Amino acid sequence: MRVPLSWLAEFVDLEPSTTPEDVHAALVRVGLEEEEIHTFEVSGPVVVGEVLDFVEEPQSNGKTIRWCQVQVAPDGERAADGGEAVHGIVCGASNFLVGDKVVVTLPGAVLPGPFPIAARKTYGHVSDGMIASVRELGLGDEHDGILRLATLGLDPEVGTDAIALLGLDDAAVEVNVTPDRGYAFSIRGIAREYSHATGADFRDPALSTPVEEREERARLETAATLFPVTIDDQAPIRGRIGASVFVTRVVRDVDGTRPTPPWMLARLTLAGIRSISLIVDVTNYVMLELGQPIHGYDLDALSGGLTVRRATPGETLVTLDEKTRTLNPEDLVIADESGAIGLAGVMGGASTEIGTTTHAVLVEAANFDPVSIARTARRHKLPSEASKRFERGVDPEVAAPAAARVVQLLEQLAGGRADDLGSAHHAAEAPAAIELPNGYIAGLVGVEYTDAEIRDSLAEIGGSLSESDAGLRVTPPSWRPDLTDKSDLAEEVARIVGYDRIPSVLPVAPPGRGLSRAQQLRRAAAQTLADNGATEVLAYPFVDEASNDTFGSPTEKSVPAVRLANPMDATVPFLRTSLLPGLIDVAKRNLARGLTDLAIYETGLVFRPEAGIRYGTPNVPPGAVLPSDEVLAELNDGIPPQPRHIGALFTGNAVVRQPSHPAVVASLGDALDAARQIARAVGARLDIVQGSHKALHPGRTAELVVRSGTQSRVVGYAGELLPAFAEEHDLPRVVAVLELDLDALIDSAPIDIEARVIAGFPAATQDLSLVVAVATPAGEVRAAVVEGAGALLEDARLIDDYRGDGVPSGSKSLTFALRFRSDDRTLTTPEATEAKLAGAALAAERFGATVRE
Fold first, then answer.
1. What is residue 214's predicted lDDT score, i.e. its pLDDT?
2. 90 in helix, strand or coil?
């Protein structure tokens, strides 16, 4: 919301020395967010000039310029720039005549841009200044010619300061209005907030209109000249009728060709509203002033009275932006006998648009249901200044004063005449009273406010107070629909008294709360990769069918995938079944930008529907109805499984080249190390076994397995991409990848951690070399050795895989470093040897292994 200071000063006292920064600081104190300061960025000398004479001079480039003599100071006086009273000025526009009063920017002036003005030679003359247009002054976008002051209804003296005359010396402060404080989308609301912050006297503009609202409502409800309005809402949202207030007034003999006065034009411009025409500008002006959106109809273009109803299926409407819109049955529309003529609270229709030929105006000021307006605006992608206010809540009591204010301005500025014709429908519910128990605010905020501070604060925001058995009964004002609970009142007291009264004390976290075990372990897994130098990325969850077929299953068989009904990009219409396609795209993008050494990871959901199950729900509940528990259960049943995975990709150098140290290229080992680190971080036991995957290199692919008793489950894969696949995707030849089902890995981790006794006796170490067939997985041989060696074996690591002289063809020699230890004695060599040979025996039984001497 942009607030011109001159406008703000009409409703609240501003000290003469008040700066925009002062206003910002005051509004921040009461909870509004400071944004920018807006000015016209015009500095003098800028004066009123009169065209005395001009000569048209055609140029060789086909353009005709005017060499003008412009009087910029009264006879006998010096000009504001110290020069002569008459200046010679070159002008390219031709829309003015001799005798016209214009705006002249003299040498030394600065226009928006910034664009400094100086005397300069052009077209064979020294142009001593410039005659300005509306756009050059920052008052609008019009640039068809220079600004003739007569078009604004002005006839000032020559030499008058044009900056003050046109309101270009004003400034506006911009604040960000949160969704719960819609009343602050008006000068009225901001003035009230400034009064709260500074104690300055506030004058409510809603009470200053020439017609007292209650008397006017009563008169219109009983008038014989009642304008016909019907509220026919057959499809209320959440049980609330679409229009609770609907006020109309008629103004006749309006002159739509009259110009918008400079003071109004300047204020609208600073407020960010484009000037359209006087009548439309008046409605926008009142909307900004009081926060009540106003719509004006060309009365002569209406067919009969107005009806507020829901749109019929297939009904269309041409809106003011000249677009034909197909309406939804939930849309609230304003209609006459010809059909829909406007989207209620969003945008009017083109058929009743106000124009320069309009002579009779029907003024509408209504209050519409916020949810209905918000849905319509989003459904049609049609945000407007009106919908922005209605969807946050508009004061239902301000509609009649706002309509009266429009009538007043049309009478004063457009020569209009107020007609007796009008109507007033008012069915808005009164705000419900809120019980505020004694001591509640102090207990919630942590400050012992006095009774006087609480009462004064609640009265200051417009609340009506009365005594109750528990404490106070507070009825919020009509402009604060956000106040619905006692906690809201506590916040208002804290805000009005001052947030600086609240002590900065860190609260003690209650026991038994915080992150769940799964959340803690997920964070630990991700943090482990980050601590080891990997960078977290966030890839899009949308992929093409080929990516899901390649990575959704390790086999050639494709897996089911969820196809989006309305994908943002038709080339990627499926939800991902794996994280690896996204990581590959991220790697490809970074490699193209020169980042050749990559270690990246992502944690996120994948979507794994089960074959043969149809997901989704045929009966989507309407948005206006709260779904029952049964409907929610049906919706949840229609969602496919969404496990959380963690994936990583490594390529380039894992260790960069340094003096005396060669580079170490990232490979399968890095992916396996990452998998082990993730498992260790969550407390799970992960076994690595030989595997295969259609996108990964045969012989350099591992299955990642968790075991529970005699049961085992594959929870992921690690490996190197097929070189052909890597080349196809513009990746290096060696790219190592990893993907784990993080949810399954966490589920496999024991909840209770068993602490091992710290060994107090020395270990006995021995090596064991076993000869097995080349195709025998080393991990399975190690598992057999560990099982056979028994409880004395503390650790077993593969330290060598030899194939060559001394080993039969088709075989390999696997050497394991074994460490034995007892908790109650020092082991002897024969005891360690016996356990080693027991492990070798079990390996021989399962795989035909022989001990290599």
1. 46
2. strand
